[in-house]
Write a structure and sequence with these properties.
heterodimer; A: mainly beta; 7-stranded mixed β-sheet; 4-stranded antiparallel β-sheet; B: mainly beta; globular
């Protein structure tokens, strides 16, 4: 059971470069998310996707682009990396809730550590 | 005002003691509440969820919810050094995708 895998796990890039973080899940979950985690801010939602070809902004979407052509993949692209985007990025997924309260567990990938110099 | 407030800690407790972690939230529409544990350098993992007012127990963990006060807490009984981690509170509103996380409380359990 591979779950959610992220790649690369660690990346150093230069300011202005484009960077893509990959996320792949094997559960066929409908919902996928990208979070970033920084000291003092906790986990902040960047983008999420309810299904293939359906994406929407979260709290901090500026400077990021996502796509979801296949259910299992949800790449996150930093079009022109800035130092403020140095962070740990977590991809997550969740299935369709059975009712209003249950089935809401979010499962996280192992994270991608990105440093922009 | 932040959506979710947690004391950043660190909260230090001796081994065997009860650790009490607190969380307040601003969205009165929040329906379900989750506690995640995150070890240093690792991803968050779900340890408890609670939907109704009152207490919910699971092993050494007890989640407590008071929607009127917009307050949720996590008690860890018989704390172990392996419980040392950051605990994230995550209320969820009517929008299933609005999953806000608190900044987390760092717990240190001293042997």
């Amino acid at each position: 059971d591979a779950g959610i895998t992220q790649s690369p796990r660690y990346k150093i890039t230069e300011t202005g470069r484009q960077v893509t973080l990959m996320c792949h899940q094997t559960w066929s979950h409908s919902y996928m998310f990208w979070y970033r985690q920084d000291l003092g801010h906790g986990l902040r939602l960047i983008y999420y996707s309810a299904a293939a070809d359906i994406t929407d902004k979260g709290e901090v979407p500026d400077g990021y682009v996502v796509s979801r052509s296949k259910t299992e993949n949800f790449p996150l692209t930093l079009e022109s990396a800035t130092r403020s985007q140095t962070s740990v990025y977590f991809c997550a997924s969740r299935g369709v809730p059975k009712d209003n309260l249950s089935g809401n567990t979010i499962y996280f990938g192992e994270g991608s550590w990105l440093t922009v110099v | 005002q932040k959506e979710v407030e947690q004391n950043s800690g660190p909260l230090s407790v001796p081994e065997g003691a009860i650790a009490s972690l607190n969380c307040t939230y601003s969205d009165r529409g929040s329906q379900s509440f989750f506690w995640y544990r995150q070890y240093s350098g690792k991803s968050p993992e779900l340890i408890m969820s609670i939907y109704s007012n009152g207490d919910k127990e699971d092993g050494r963990f007890t989640a407590q919810l008071n929607k009127a006060s917009q307050y949720v807490s996590l008690l860890i009984r018989d704390s172990q050094p392996s419980d040392s981690a950051t605990y994230l509170c995550a209320p969820r509103g009517y929008n299933f995708n609005k999953f806000y996380f608190g900044s987390g409380t760092k717990l240190n359990v001293k042997p």
